[in-house]
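Researcher: Go.
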Amino acid sequence: MIQPIRSYLRRTAAAIAVAAAMTVPSEAFAQFRWGAQAGVNVNNLKFKQELVTVDKSTGFSAGVTGEMMFPGIGFGLDIGLHYEMTGSKVHLGERKMWSSQGYGNEQLRMHYAVIPLHVRFKWTRLGGLEEKIAPLVYFGPEFSILAGHSKCDAMDFAGGTLALDMGGGVEIMRRWQLTAGYNMGMTYVVKAKVLTNYSARNRYWYVRGTYYF
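Model: Structure:
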């Protein structure tokens, strides 16, 4: 699965870069920089049917991100690689088919290597105010590769997932970025072994801080 994801990322990044370059004035050049990022999230597993209670849980993320902006128009791209811990507490013991096997309130944790690819817009023409604070928004896909998970034999864990990520925030003093966003899973992350169509997708809110070098 990793190779198709890498291939898709290369094709998508190339297509977006070419499209963006066609809109950039000839005197403008893309500016690229790397940064360190960390954050926390509040995660929920959204099952297809509400058979049992699911409690939200907190997780965290940390990694690196790269930003490429085109001066003068405010548009750009960001791509990175970070570790993300997600999951929720699932009350399997509420149903006899699981309680009879000894399952109760199971904390499901997933650990991912995440590759985001966002299109972003940053307000860069604020009469000089952007040197101190500049609003920004972003949107795009995220590709997650499962690196590990908690032990729960009642569930099968997907090896990788696809999500849509969106958010906004502010850039402070050209170095710090504070963002908040929502991640909407498009493919399942866990699936029950005893039911053919009982699966869940990730949904979580997050806040993150990034420092660019």
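Model: Strands lie at 31-47, 54-69, 75-91, 105-122, 133-149, 155-157, 160-172, 176-185, 190-192, 199-212.
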